[in-house]
Amino acid sequence: MKSWAIYIAAALGFAIYGASTSVDRDESGAIIGEGAVDAFNVQVGDCFNDANSNSDEVSSVPGVPCSDPHDYEAFSVFDVSFESYPNEETMAQSAHDACVERFEPFVGRDYESSTLDVTTMYPSTESWAQNDREVVCAVFDMESNRLVGSAMGRGL
Fold first, then answer.
1. How many domains does the chain fold into?
2. What phi and psi values does residue 64 have, to the nearest 5 degrees?
3. 3 φ/ψ sector (left φ>0, alpha ψ -120 to 50, else beta)
4. In a domain, 146, yes or no
């Protein structure tokens, strides 16, 4: 009987911890309080900071309200159309190229003359095997200045 109580208490503890570290969103989905954003739940308009991970695999990013200083802003989320995983280099280049194509409509300035650059999160061979097809495009300042507010339509 006690062993079930321990498992239930542990599960409840993990659920509370997960809820307390997850990002807070308003009814429109905008981030209103700091917290972790699962890499599979990043939305267009989400602002976040560097994950400071020693791994190439990103499972979550530290989300923040866009009104706070931040490193990145997601501006496009889409699925790749490859039939099978090509290779790391092809996947990275394809994701980057597709994000650059989506850059100007979001920022309001062409990629080449902008002070912003693009970073991507894209499927790895491991996540591909788990049906991950999603690419996240995010802008950041090339001078390593933190962004404040949304970059959408600002022509930076």
1. 1
2. -140, 155
3. alpha
4. no
Instruction: Give SS3 for 101.
Output: helix
**Nearest of 107, 137, 97 to residue 121 by alpha carbon:** 137
By three-state DSSP, how is residue 156 classified? coil
Spatial distance between the Cα atoms of 76 and 140, rounded to a whole number of angstroms: 13
Q: What is the pLDDT of residues 30-50, one digit of tens each?
A: 999 999 999 899 999 999 999
- For residue 106, the enclosing domain spans 2-141
In tens, the pLDDT along 2-19 reads 333 333 333 333 333 333
Is 51 within the bounds of a domain?
yes
**47 with 66: CB under 8 angstroms?**
yes
Give CA 81 to chain center in angstroms. 20
Which element (helix H / strand E) includes 86? none
Q: What is the pTM of this model?
A: 0.82
Tokens of residue 79, six digits: 């699925």
